[in-house]
Amino acid sequence: MIQLKIKYTFIFFVLAVFSSSVAAIPVQTDFQGLKLNANYEKAENKNKPFYLILHGTWSWNGSELSTAFQELLAEEDYGSLAITLSLNENNRTGPLDCKNVVKDLHQQAYAELHYWFQFLSNKGYKKIVLVAHSRGGAQAAEYVKDYPDDKISQLILIAPMTYDKDRVYKYYQKSYHQDLAKLVKKAAAFKDKKQLMKHTSVVYCKDATVTAESFLSYYGDGIERDTPTIIKQLKLPVRVYLGSEDSISNQFAKEIKTIKLHKNTVIKTIEGSDHFFRDLYLEDIVEDVLEHQP
Question: pTM here?
Answer without folding.
Answer: 0.91
